[in-house]
Amino acid sequence: MAAEVAPFAKTGGLADVTASLSKALDQRGHEVAIILPKYLMVDRGGYPTELIDLPLSFRIDNEDRTGWIHRAKFPGASITVYFVANDFYYNRNGIYHDGGRDYPDNLARFTFFCRAVIEFIRSGEFTPDIVHCHDWQTSLVPTYLKTTEKDVQSLSNLKTVFTVHNLAFQGFFPREQFPATGLPWHTFTQEGLEFFGDLNLLKAGFVYSDAITTVSERYAIEMMTPEYGCGMESIVSACRHRLTGILNGVDYEVWNPQNDPMIVSHYSPEDLSGKSRCKAALQEQFGLPVREDVPIFASISRFDDQKGLDLIYHAMEMLLFEGDLQLVVLGEGKPEYERLFNDLTSRFPHQVSLYVGHNEECAHRMLSGADLFLMPSRYEPCGLVQLYSLKYGTPPIVRQAGGLADTVRDYNDAQRDGYGFVFNQAETKDFLQAIGRALAVYRDRTAWTALQRRGMACDFSWGRSADKYEHLFESLVEDYS
Fold it and tell me: N or C: which end of the chain has fewer CB within 10 A?
């Protein structure tokens, strides 16, 4: 269960992960079902759904709220997808927010979702052994199972796994909103959901789940440190015996330049000629001069402090004054970062272009057409786009943090090894040095082509990670039996 699952509802990497991991487990012969809210974007996407006879009714914030369950088939898999429908909560433009502001009733919205999932399981429509919960929006399911629902016989065998995709997003709500959860007040303690006087739903996932995972081995360690723990390092450390870092995988049926239907020309490690055509198409699409000799840098990112976008701005500002290069940016989020990139586009209109928003096709075209991918995150639990960029022969320049450190091997000029460029400190000068190293290799076409091919040969598919999830799930079921 998750707040978003591709292709039905997506704002970022969470949707890709929930979809591709489900497909990987389905392909291994497991019976997999997915459940998420039925947002307006599901209807706008034209996905046909079937209403099933399972009405839902809960009292939340002193109001009776009614919903329904719909179902559909996941494209290209034997997975059934279930949707929790309630127009009052989900018939909106966004998943979490609109116009950059969180919906003020998000606690009620995701409380309804979690209570609906519990009732759905009790109905017997689908009887799982494991409920895999992703991020704070789902954390009330393990909480209910260990508190208000602990004596329900039909739920007594159910195990929960809680995956933390980003510790910074904690589901904080004021103490006064706690009654909306329907939980007894004795759970609002330091040992339960209370966190510095308020409600923390991410903490609930840590406290009440049978097992916890996060999205890379390094991030599992980083979460227990003050630098990356986001104030929760002591809670994470207390749960470390239940915590496992499992690297996210890539669905290469979706992200592969050899058969990607969204790009203008296919190519492979053996024949990279199509990438030049993709580059020309990208320059044309973004209104930049079509020049093969100019390196194009790309950034695809949520506009957030985490992502090191200020480093991109300051580094590119200096390089654009001094050199002949181009920059294309795709993303949305905090207005201050949109202003920074608009500043670059106004000052360097023939070198910089910005697309504000989420556009899946544009992301594919940027990765296929760009020469270098920028990802200088201050922290990065796993990261997916650097993995996509490797497959598309677009070497990433990343900071050594979290999943970036676990997945990108720094280029070694002496050994002609590695397939990306890594820097340590979140400082403009360090970032510029990494960019300088990358441009030096870029000018050596033989070395550059070899570097591209090494990156394209990397295998970050779900194979090894799905093995680890299988082992974890089976251990939980075996513990019960």
Answer: C
